[in-house]
Structures are given as C-alpha cells and as structure tokens.
Design a protein that fits this description.
Layout (H helix, E strand, L loop, with lengths): L1 E9 L3 H12 L4 E5 L23 H14 L3 E4 L2 E6 L4 E5 L2 E10 L3 E3 L7 H6 L3 E2 L2 H4 L8 E5 L2 H10 L6 E5 L9 H7 L2 E4 L4 E5 L2 E7 L2 E5 L1 E5 L2 E3 L2 H5 L23 E3 L10 H22 L5
Parallel strand pairs: 1-2, 1-6, 2-3, 6-17, 8-15, 9-10, 9-15, 10-11
Antiparallel strand pairs: 4-5, 5-6, 7-16, 12-13, 13-14
Helix pairs in contact: 1-2, 1-8
Organism: Brevundimonas staleyi
Protein name: Thioredoxin reductase
InterPro entries: FAD/NAD-bd_sf (IPR036188), FAD/NAD-binding_dom (IPR023753), Ferredoxin-NADP_redctase_2 (IPR050097)
Length: 301
C-alpha cells in the first residue's frame, strides 16, 4: 500500500509529536512513523519539564502529546522506516510493508544511549538509580553519594557538573588508562577516582552497590552513566546528508539539513538532550516545512 502525505515525521518522541501537532494544526496531512520506545519513556519522573512543578513521567508526557497530535488529525503508525529515498521532489519511505510518499520529511529519530554493562540496568534506570542526564535531574542528586561510570574524559566533565550538587562524587573509569587525560581536574574537583571494571552490581532498596575492586562493595545513592550516545542518523547518511563530527545532523536556523526538504529536530541534532529543546526545534522545523510547502503551492505573497 502506498500513502501520499504532505509530511512524514520519523520518530514519535517529544520532537516528532510536537512537529506532528503543529503540522496538523497547519492543516497538513502528516504521518508519524513510531518506531517505539523513545528515550523520553525512560523518565521515571521529570521535575524540570516546564509547567509540571510536581513532576511528570516520561510515559505521561508522551501519552499527552500523542493525544494532542491525533486530535488535530495526525496519523501515528507503528513501525520502523527501513529505507528513505529522494528524487528531488518526493521522498519515498519504506514503513513496514508499506510505502509512504511525502513532500517533506522531519527526522526526529533521536540517539541510542551507551548503557553500562550492568545487570538489570533498564530496571535501574526506571527506578532512577542509574541516570543518564544530570542536566535533567542533577538537582535530585543534592548531597547524595554519586558514582559516575565513564570510559573517557566525558566522565570527568560529568563529575564536574554533578559537583554543583554534591561533594561526594566518585568517577569509576572503566576504559583504558590512556583515555583519561583530565586526572588533575579530578583532584582539583575533589572527585575520587576508581579505575577498574565493574564486576557485579547490587540493587538494594533505594541504593546501588557495585563490586568495583578487591572484593570491596561500595554503596551509592545513585549512579550516572557518562558513556555517551550514538545518533540514529543512518537514514540521513544514506541520502548523503551532512553530518557533524559527532555523527549528529547539521541543520540551519530553520532546522533544515543539507538535503532539500529534509529537516531534523531533537536529540539527533544536538547533544543537550532536553525535551524543552526538542519541542522548540520541532516547532521551528514544522513552521519552516509549512512555509516551504506554501511557497511551492504559490501561497506566499
């Protein structure tokens, strides 16, 4: 089956759903390809989401956004986009067993976290014992015993950020010694350094205990992973879209990529990884897409 739409949105996280809402309210036909399990769904309770001072879960945020987009006519279809091609005018996407033809495409495909190799890590993230975003929830680490798992100087930078909230921060460096060059910074920051693989993890109640070295257990209130992410940019790369050095998509001030008609928003674009940023970029992208289509239709004075 082939479906023709004005805009195909690939990704059903906060960026994709915000764009779908805007585009549907612009009275555009829009199809959202929902590949399932956006990163926002991992959030147990967000306290920095604007408008929710008591906090809101990631699942609740996504449910509200899906409901809002559908209310205005956006179609959300489960499935992965396996291939995306462009003939200069129309994009064609393979979505499951169907084909979707679209005049414009918004990539909101996000990133994949490099989780530490810990047993039960997914459950630990859901319980907020293992965390992936100190910008989101560093405040909740105030005065807590915090471990940061890293394999590069990114771990040092994360420790420095968390020192805003706690003076009990330990870096567990699991990478090669030569990949850790900012050792003097750790001393200056008062961060303890442990260089060893993590052999075993215990999740007991509201604490994390990790067997780190010499059979010694160390207890932490929570653990941050500073192992980085990889952008889901394969579809764009196949179109020879310009990528940044970190593999994310380069866009202009209107969220346009280097491929005409292809836009991007959210974590796949930049590294701040914030819902507020993703939704703002999606609003910009959706408006730019609508105006581009209006111009092609001769509707711009």
């Amino acid at each position: 089956m082939t479906t023709d739409v004005d805009v195909l949105v690939i990704g059903a996280g906060p960026a994709g759903l915000t764009a779908a809402n805007y585009l549907a309210r612009f009275r555009r036909s829009v199809l959202v390809a929902d590949g399932g399990q956006p990163r926002a769904g991992w959030i147990p309770l967000s306290h920095n989401m604007p408008g929710f001072p008591a906090g809101i879960s990631g699942d609740a945020i996504l449910a509200r956004m899906r409901e809002q987009a559908r209310e205005y006519g956006a179609v959300i279809q489960a499935g992965w986009v396996d291939r995306l091609s462009h003939d200069g005018e129309i994009f064609t996407a393979a979505l499951g067993g169907d084909q979707v033809r679209a005049r414009a495409v918004l990539l909101a495909t996000g990133v994949v976290d490099h989780h530490p190799d810990l047993p039960g890590v997914e459950r630990a993230i859901e319980r907020a014992l293992v965390r992936i975003c100190p910008i989101c929830d560093g405040y909740e680490a105030t005065d807590k015993a915090v471990a940061v798992i890293g394999d590069s100087d990114l771990g040092v930078r994360e420790c420095a950020f968390i020192r805003t909230y706690s003076d009990r921060v330990t870096l567990i460096h699991i990478g090669p010694p030569d990949d850790l060059t900012e050792r003097e910074a750790l001393t200056r920051l008062g961060v303890e350094l442990v260089e060893t693989p993590i052999e075993q993890v215990r999740l007991e109640g509201d604490r994390v205990t990790a067997l780190c070295w010499s059979g010694e257990y160390r207890a932490f209130d929570l653990v941050y992973s500073a192992l980085g992410t990889s952008a889901n940019a394969e579809l764009a790369a196949a179109l020879d879209c310009r990528l940044a050095e970190d593999g994310r998509l380069e866009v202009d001030l209107h969220q346009k990529t280097s491929v005409p008609g292809l836009y991007a928003a959210g974590d796949v674009v930049r590294g701040l990884n914030q819902i507020a940023v993703a939704t703002a970029e999606a609003a910009v992208a959706a408006t730019a897409i609508h105006n581009r289509l209006r111009q092609a239709e001769g509707m711009v004075v």
